[in-house]
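Q: I'm building a small set of examples for a reading group on sequence design. Run inverse folding on the following structure and report the sequence directly after it, with nothing in between.
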């Protein structure tokens, strides 16, 4: 499999808290979430690596491992991307967020969009940054007994990257598995096809040390038509999953403690 190394990107900085002209909605959906995230990153002693691998402009797919049943990893990654680049990534999110207006409105305000191929392509074609978890709910809803073992990647993210010629930034998260303990993965396919939910042990997050690492971007040297090549898409997907699993294993081997 041939991957092309990334070109250099110019750096830009964005202010985290811009209080000019804030209304109630901006305070609720922009300032407060960032304030909470800043508190949580201190609580979790978050360490960040590889922000230089995040593109400062143009389309890109951010592809992290999914861990910890709460989906808190999505918020933390998006927050760090915003701090590092000044850009707000669109996060492809579980469809349960969009069943009612009560959850759909705040989700949209936070940059969440329903996880569909059409939505991913739509925002990539607008030269935006899109975050997608290739494992889907099987990643963050897997039991903690299977912590840091990547579940099979869905291949839609590769097709999106090929169709839009977007770079893929593999991203790994260490710590979320211990912050939110999941006892089991429950399937409710009898009631709603494909519905999977967690069986959590704790609601209050445990203070495990977190690390988020953005790996080298992958530029796929293929034409958009390659998205219809099933074998090629499968091979690319498998190679990226293997690369991420290796990086996760390396980080776990270097970790000296979880909570101290």
């Amino acid at each position: 499999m041939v991957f092309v190394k990334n070109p250099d990107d110019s750096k830009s900085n964005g202010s985290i808290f811009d209080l000019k002209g804030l209304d109630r909605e901006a305070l609720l959906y922009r300032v407060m979430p960032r304030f909470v995230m800043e508190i949580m990153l201190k609580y979790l002693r978050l360490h960040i690596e590889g922000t230089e691998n995040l593109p400062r402009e143009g389309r890109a797919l951010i592809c992290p491992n999914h861990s910890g049943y709460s989906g808190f990893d999505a918020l933390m990654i998006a927050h760090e991307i915003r701090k590092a680049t000044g850009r707000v990534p669109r996060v492809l999110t579980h469809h349960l967020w969009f069943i009612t207006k009560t959850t759909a409105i705040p989700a949209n305000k936070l940059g969440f969009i329903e996880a569909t191929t059409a939505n991913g392509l739509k925002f990539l074609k607008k030269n935006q940054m899109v975050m997608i978890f290739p494992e889907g709910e099987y990643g963050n809803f897997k039991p903690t007994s299977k912590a840091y073992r990547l579940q099979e990647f869905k291949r839609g993210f590769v097709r999106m990257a090929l169709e839009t010629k977007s770079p893929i930034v593999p991203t790994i998260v260490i710590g979320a598995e211990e912050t939110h303990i999941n006892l089991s993965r429950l399937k409710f396919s009898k009631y709603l096809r494909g519905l999977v939910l967690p069986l959590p042990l704790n609601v209050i997050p445990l203070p495990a040390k977190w690390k988020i690492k953005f790996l080298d971007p992958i530029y796929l040297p293929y034409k958009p038509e390659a998205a219809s090549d099933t074998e090629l898409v499968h091979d690319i997907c498998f190679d990226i999953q293997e690369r991420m699993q290796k990086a996760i294993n390396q980080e776990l081997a270097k970790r000296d403690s979880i909570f101290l």
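The chain has one domain: 49-254.
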